[in-house]
Amino acid sequence: MLTFLVKHSLVCMFLCALLGFAFPVASNALFPFLPYVLFTLMLLTLIGMPMEQLIKRLCHHSIWLYALLHSAFFMTIFAVCGVLLGLSDELLLAVLGVGATGSLFATPAIVRALGYDSLEAMAMTIATTLILPVALFIPIHFLPMSQGSLDFVTYGVRLLIFIVGPILISFTLHRVVPTETLQRALLKVSPYTILLVFAFPFGLIGSYRGLWNESMPEAMVFLLIAVALVCVFFVVTFIFYRHQGIEKSLTAAITSGNRNVLLTYSIAGVLLGPAFLPLAGAMQVPTYILPVITRRIARYLKNRL
């Protein structure tokens, strides 16, 4: 059964989003536990990476240029479009929050499933995650919601737990534990990490189902915005990197399209306003169908060469 889930993981992630929508009670029951799942997945993903090679990748300027494209560029575009379109402060804050969000820590596994360089995707993911606090501070500071002002102590503690914590623990384990021992342990645990990934689409979409029950037209608007955001992330990034080849461009594009909205919510919480969680829930559908579409795009582009 586990082998089947791993083999068809890309499709199963999308199906989990649909199941979460179909069973909102179960989805909402799982939601409070997702931060713990997130921390565990981030830690296991980092431990499984060769740290020295990863650090070398992170020292390359191209990774940080990508991180600026991933957040600063898109946030600027969305801010201008939001003002021109007359979006409410709540919806604009939610959209900018998504723009600030780093890549999913499951992205390297998705990129590996496509046969591409997972280490490159991991470096991009870490870089976008590290600049998340700065990128996230801007919309929260300039678009304050009625839920309260920014508590720097709580904000800092959450940053330490969800970003610094997994990185520091992983680095320490690589220093203290022999590599062979660490790899043997990971070989036993890593097949089960896919089950952790399935929890995100299932547990996050419940908030969107709540909006759907209250107002279907408004929910459809949120879904259209979510699809548009993921498409813009993917297509624009693909165009930016197209001159570097299919593998590089698709790796960057899918890394940009996969957004770790749970991490953003875990750090900022209600400061992101009432529209963020429903939008984050709506994004589960396009986010988890994106790898399936990307696999088809990759095959199509390869056949054309």
Q: Could you give the topology of this structure?
A:
Blueprint: H1 2-7, H2 9-22, H3 24-30, H4 34-47, H5 51-58, H6 61-85, H7 89-100, H8 107-113, H9 118-130, H10 132-142, H11 152-176, H12 179-189, H13 193-204, H14 206-214, H15 216-241, H16 246-257, H17 261-268, H18 276-282, H19 284-304
Give a verbal description of the structure:
The structure is a single chain. The protein is mainly alpha-helical. The protein has a single domain (1-303), classed as Up-down Bundle (Na+/H+ antiporter like fold), CATH 1.20.1530. 81% of the residues lie in helices and 0% in strands. It contains 19 helices and no strands. 43% of the residues are buried. It comes from Marinomonas gallaica. This is Sodium Bile acid symporter family protein. The chain crosses the membrane at residues 32-51, 63-85, 91-111, 123-143, 155-177, 189-208, 220-241, 262-281.
What is the string of helix and strand elements?
HHHHHHHHHHHHHHHHHHH
Oligomer: single chain
pLDDT averaged over residues: 86
- Count every helix, treating DSSP H or I runs of 4 or more residues as helices: 19
Amount of beta strand: under 5%
The CATH first-level class comes to Mainly Alpha
Q: How many domains, as an integer?
A: 1
CATH topology: Na+/H+ antiporter like fold
Q: Largest sheet, described in full?
A: none
Distance between the termini: 36 Å
DSSP E strands, number: 0
What form results from the Cα inertia axes? globular
What value does the Rg take, in angstroms? 18 Å
Question: Structural class from helices and strands?
Answer: mainly alpha
**Which CATH architecture would you pick?**
Up-down Bundle
Helix content: over 70%
pLDDT < 50 stretches: none
